[in-house]
Amino acid sequence: MYYTVCEVAKRLGLSPHTIRFYGKEGLLDFVERDQNGNRIFKESDFERLFIIASLKRAGMTIKQIRTFTRLCDQGDSTIAQRLQIILDQRDAVEEQITELQDALDVLKYKTWLYEVALKAGTTAVHDHMPLEEMPPNIRKIKERIRRLTDDMERLYKGPSKP
After folding, report:
1. CB of 93 within 8 A of CB of 59?
2. Distance (Å, rounded) from C-alpha 64 to C-alpha 85?
3. Distance (Å, rounded) from C-alpha 84 to C-alpha 54?
4. Strand pairing of 2-3 and 39-42?
5. What digits encode the pLDDT tens for the residues 54-75?
6. pTM
7. Strand partners, 154
């Protein structure tokens, strides 16, 4: 059974424009065409399209994906190169996840801060609040902010004098 660009796009959660763009960028050379020159996709094409879309979502550039797919086409002699590409991208994604988790933690902290301030009618409510009165997840962020502040103060004060 064959599928059209629109059917493939819908099945993969992509736009037809994205599928066509991948084709123009040389990522779909494996896809057959009908007598009118339209791409026709087989069931066996879905895995490769899914991988291409996943690599793009993982932050790989079209050029990197093209390199990867061409290595795939070369067969088993490129397994080590392909593995390294995947490992490198996995490391980059894990780093992004860590950065995003840090950003989410700060947003949670600020949400808590403003919810408490809204109830009290002032942001000054936090000025002298002991860490023990803060929820554990908020306390962790507040302690981290204090360490950063302390580190910056030490950095700008220079070495302490006896």
Report:
1. yes
2. 9
3. 17
4. antiparallel
5. 999 999 999 999 999 999 999 9
6. 0.74
7. none
Residue tagged 């994205």 (tokens)? 18
Burial 69-107, CB ≥16 within 10 A → b, else e: bebeeeeeeeeeebeebeeebeeeeeeeeeeeeeeeeee
When pLDDT is averaged across residues 27-54 and rounded to a whole number, the result is 91
Average per-residue pLDDT for the chain:
91
| C-alpha of 29 from chain center | 27
Q: Residue 23 and residue 41: Cα distance in Å, rounded?
A: 12
Arithmetic mean of pLDDT, 104-110? 93
Asked if residue 85 lies in contact with residue 68, where contact means CB atoms within 8 angstroms, the answer is: yes
Residues with Cβ within 8 Å of 2's Cβ and at least 6 positions away in sequence, in order, are 32, 34, 40, 41, 42
- CA distance linking residue 39 with residue 33, whole number of Å: 4
What band does 145 get if pLDDT is binned at 50, 70 and 90?
A: confident
d(CA 4, CA 41): 6
Asked if 12 contacts 50 with a C-beta cutoff of 8 angstroms, the reply is: yes
Q: How far is CA 156 from the centre of its chain?
A: 35
Read off the tokens for 98. Answer: 């860590």
